[in-house]
Design brief:
The complex is a heterodimer. Chain A is elongated. In chain A, about 0% of the residues lie in helices and about 45% in strands. In chain A, a hairpin with a 4-residue loop joins strand 7 and strand 8. Chain A contains no helices and 56 strands. Chain A is an all-beta fold. Among the domains of chain A are: about 110 residues, Sandwich (Immunoglobulin-like), CATH 2.60.40.10; about 110 residues, Immunoglobulin-like (Sandwich), CATH 2.60.40; about 120 residues, Sandwich (Immunoglobulin-like). Chain B has one domain: Jelly Rolls, CATH 2.60.120. In chain B, the strands form 3 sheets. In chain B, strands 3, 5, 6, 7 and 11 form a 5-stranded antiparallel sheet that branches. In chain B, strands 4, 8, 9, 10 and 12 form a 5-stranded antiparallel sheet that branches. In chain B, strand 1 and strand 2 form a beta hairpin. Classes of the chains: A mainly beta, B mainly beta. Strand 1 of chain A pairs antiparallel with strand 12 of chain B.
Chain lengths: ~725, ~170
């Protein structure tokens, strides 16, 4: 009897019908990969680590992975679904040691896709992170990880419209030659941001620098570029149904031309470069190009045929991606749990099979072992020690100092920080070691009057010094740990001349004063204590012992009541209204809850303002021994609102004038009216007073105040006073006290 | 190649936290079993309208893992797996754990026949006859450490009646 072989051959075929299918194609090949005429069961997948938001918090979804070849490390981006926060992580090349390196962004609720599509690319020791979001308004800014910068996650900025640096919002990034190419962003000018057809290129060897004139407009305007992949010396630019080729190697030689007018790539990650060939998924299935027109590699894959019974469903197209597995030499188009695996061990006879993953894959990457990179020096020695106490401790930042004990070069120092004692650790500093001296790094963004734990270790590539390999910094050596507490600033009162509050009278009558202040940055979460003292004074020589009344405020307080808390306000409050003690200086000072230092004092007069300082002019009348007190109410008093009513100011304002003969005793408070009279308010006015005795060269003191009647009650201002030595013939101004 | 570092493909997962998954590692997907399966295309040794006797199938396996492999014959698109009133003519091959000693390659012969039952008792067996023949080869009960390679599948048959070739009048 004849025996015929049923060889493992070209892959999968059903749709052509039994009369046509060849015996070396199979109806179903699942969880095997083909090579050299046989099929081998694929190996499995092992969890090496989980991306984290902090030391203690696993993220929910891994969105992107990428090698960081220059550092012998890898980068991952994951999402915390509850908060929609996307965090970047650094990984060792074996997929372990996931450490949070910063918040990439918060996915807007309006984003088109959730999970979001994140695209990474590494070059020059940096890893770029782009958010492939069709809606520009929901797109996250492009950032890059620089392990030797602080913070390590930097926002990519460029001046692309001549109006200065602005944030860049690429949909995707790829490295090619010595450049980073980014697509999907025009420039920061309103209306020009969303340019789906634009591919921009960085300057050579400087991937964070983009010139405004270095870009390509690819094909039809607004038809989006899906992705770019290198094909040897070319960079292939895929739209959905066409492909272009960027050729050249420098800005002088770069150019672009069509390469395939029928086929493009259907999503932003469904293409992979392998040895000069780009394998991609078109609207008619997988194809390949080496720079020119693409060729069909879908046969025999049998996409047109019915799916094999029980084959796991495939993911949505935007979640699909392509990667190359060097171990099995397979190009894998991963659609969630379903994988179309193309064995290219024999490039002339590609063979297809299916993988059914038992867990949904959202992203993938090859991690390269690069022995000659900076991380190739092996595990760093133990050693970094804090120099404590830290020399500069502020309210929101602390300068961290340390000695690089044991360092030999090539290490990166990681500074980890948490709120003491139970906060979550996060890496807030990453800087290359400097072997010449101790080093410093200022950690910013801290909360005032808060204790922080600090920890330090070395990293080289994906390896840490032996005593600090545990992700929990509390297990690291004692010299690599310390605690410091931030200080606190004080609120900054808004000062308005001498009468700083906004005085008002409501029916009743009821007086109120409203004060305002500013909160220093970083103190927005602290409550505020308000304290008050009641001050009769006042100039120290013009106390209220002569019946004249209270003068302007000064430092020589004459307290009626000492400082006392009158209220404690919630965090973030920037104004406060209180009922003052009438006809007195109500002094206010502020401090943050938990703090000890007070703000400067706010002196608030419970009443109208005194006559303006620059308008109070005593002078001789030029005729007799009379003094003329003149004023001009041309400047509206600041910081106060007069009472309402039909007899509102200025109609019912009055101005009073007094004088004091200071000839024999300059500190005398022997005030007398001496002919001073109350005068009806007027914008410009004067009164005459006649001090006795009075001669040229003698010094006198004069006083003026306003009065206002509100709801039948007269409210005076404090007295504005002036010392003068008038020439009674000529007109000489005095000096305001 | 010894000592040459090969890039390792990693996947990022969605289902079990934000995990990082190293591929080509182990024999489970993050502790969950999966099985390989192969279904040949239908072949008709005697032609589409002919008839053949399918006598034996041969499956050559190279393995080091301990695993059970099950082979199911399918004749004229009907699986002889014990369902739908069909006899269960599946063959299960139990492979031993050879990870300590190395791989082993064996050719397994599967006799193809169906029972002739009479009053519930198998009296004799008939050779499988039909036009179209397929084999389903699949692992069962998950995989284990080691390799499992499907080297070759062969079919022994005898033509009973050739297919009639249509002639154009």
């Amino acid at each position: 009897m004849p025996i015929i072989p049923i060889p493992f051959g070209e892959g999968l075929q059903r749709s052509d019908g039994v009369m046509v299918v060849r015996p070396n194609t199979f109806s179903d090949l699942r969880n095997v990969y083909q090579y050299q005429g046989k099929a081998q069961a694929r190996a499995g997948m092992t969890e090496t680590d989980r991306l984290v938001d902090t030391i203690g918090g696993d993220l929910d979804q891994t969105l992107a992975l990428n090698p960081l070849r220059a550092e012998s490390a890898a980068i991952g981006v994951g999402q915390d679904v509850a908060t929609a926060n996307l965090y970047a992580n650094r990984l060792a090349l074996d997929g372990t040691n996931a450490t949070n390196i910063g918040l990439y962004g918060t996915l807007p609720a309006t984003a088109t896709w959730d999970p979001p599509i994140i695209i990474l690319a590494d070059t020059d020791g940096k890893c770029f992170i782009a958010h492939d979001e069709p809606s520009f308004t929901s797109r996250l800014v492009t950032k890059y990880y620089d392990p030797n910068a602080f913070p390590t996650l930097q926002t990519l900025q460029a001046d692309l419209d001549g109006n200065g640096l602005a944030d860049v919002y690429f949909r995707g990034v790829v490295r090619h030659l010595a450049y980073i190419f980014g697509w999907g962003f025009g420039n920061a000018t309103v209306g020009s941001e969303d340019r789906a057809d634009v591919v921009r290129v960085s300057t050579a060897g400087n991937p964070t620098n983009f010139r405004d004139d270095a870009f390509f407009e690819v094909g039809q305007r607004q038809e989006p570029v899906m992705l770019c992949r290198p094909a040897g010396q070319f960079l292939m630019v895929f739209k959905e149904t066409e492909t272009y080729q960027i050729f050249g190697y420098s800005p002088d030689t770069f150019g672009i031309r069509p390469s395939d007018s029928l086929f493009g790539c259907v999503s932003s990650r469904l293409a992979v470069s392998v040895a000069g060939t780009v394998f991609f998924w078109s609207v008619q299935g997988p194809r390949a190009t080496t720079g020119g027109e693409s060729v069909d590699i879908a046969v025999p894959l049998d996409l047109d045929g019915p799916d094999p019974a029980t084959l796991v469903a495939e993911a949505d197209v935007q979640n699909a991606f392509a990667e190359y597995d060097a171990a099995t030499r397979t190009v894998q188009f991963v659609w969630g749990q379903r994988v179309y695996a193309l064995s290219i061990r024999d490039p002339n006879r590609p063979r297809w099979s299916y993988y059914e993953l038992q867990e949904t894959a959202q992203c993938g990457a090859q991690f390269f072992t690069t022995q000659s990179a900076s991380g190739g020096g092996g595990q760093p020695a133990d050693g970094p020690e804090f120099l404590t106490p830290f020399p500069t401790v502020g309210s929101t930042e602390i300068e961290v100092d340390w000695n690089n004990v044991g360092a030999t070069g090539g290490e990166t120092v990681e500074i980890w920080v948490r709120e003491d004692p139970a906060g979550a650790w996060s890496m807030m500093g990453s800087v290359a070691t400097d072997l010449s001296a101790s080093q410093q790094l200022t950690i910013t963004g801290l909360t005032p009057i808060t204790a922080y734990d600090f920890a330090i270790r070395y990293r080289r590539g994906g390896l840490y010094n032996p005593s600090a390999t545990d992700p929990d910094p509390t297990t690291w050596p004692a010299a690599a740990q310390t605690t410091e507490t931030t200080t606190v600033d004080v609120p900054v009162p808004v000062l308005r001349g001498t009468n700083n509050g906004t005085w008002q009278v409501a029916s009743g009558p009821t007086e109120s004063i409203t004060i305002e202040w500013a909160i220093p940055a970083g103190h927005e979460l602290l409550g505020i204590e308000v304290e008050r003292e009641i001050d009769t004074e006042g100039n120290s020589v013009t106390q209220d012992v002569d019946g004249l009344g209270i003068g302007p405020p000064d430092s020589a307080n004459q307290n009626i009541t000492p400082w006392a808390n009158i209220d404690t306000l919630a965090a973030g409050v920037v104004s406060y209204t209180f009922t003052p003690t009438s006809n007195r200086w109500n002094n206010i000072r502020l401090r943050f809850v938990g703090g000890t230092a007070y703000s400067s004092e706010i002196a608030c007069w419970a009443g109208p303002d005194a006559p303006a300082a620059d308008s109070f002019v005593p002078s001789g009348d030029g005729i007799s021994n009379f003094i003329s007190l003149s004023w001009t109410n041309t400047t509206a008093p600041t910081g106060r609102t007069d009472c309402p009513g039909p007899t509102n100011p200025p109609a019912d304002h009055q101005t009073e004038g007094f004088f004091n003969n200071m000839v024999t005793d300059p500190t005398s408070d022997n005030w007398a009216s001496g002919g001073g009279v109350a005068s009806a308010y007027s914008v410009v006015g004067s009164i005459l007073v006649q001090p006795t005795p009075l001669s040229d060269g003698e010094t006198i003191r004069c006083a003026l105040r306003h009065k206002v009647t509100c709801f039948g009650t007269v409210y005076p201002s404090y007295w504005a006073r002036i010392t003068a030595t008038p020439n009674y013939v000529a007109t000489t101004a005095g000096t305001l006290e | 190649m010894a000592g040459t570092p090969i890039p390792t493909l990693f996947f990022g997962g969605l289902d079990v936290a934000a995990n990082v998954l190293q591929t080509n590692d182990g024999f489970q997907d993050n502790a969950v079993d999966y099985i390989p399966s192969l279904l040949t295309n239908p072949i008709a040794p005697a032609g589409a309208s002919g008839e053949a006797i399918f006598k034996n199938a041969y499956v050559t396996l190279t393995h080091s893992m301990a695993v059970d492999v099950r082979i199911t014959p399918i004749v004229d698109f009907v699986a002889l797996d014990g369902t739908g009133g069909q006899p269960d003519e599946r063959l299960t091959i139990t492979l031993a754990d050879l990870t300590a000693t190395g791989r082993e390659t064996d050719r397994y012969e599967m006799g193809l026949s169906v029972p002739f039952p009479l009053t519930g008792t198998e009296r004799f067996r008939n050779a499988l006859r039909g036009a179209w023949f397929q084999l389903l080869i699949e692992g069962i009960n998950g995989l284990a450490a080691g390799d499992l390679i499907f080297e070759q599948i062969e079919l022994e048959y005898e033509v009973v009646r050739e297919s009639v070739v249509a002639e154009t009048p």
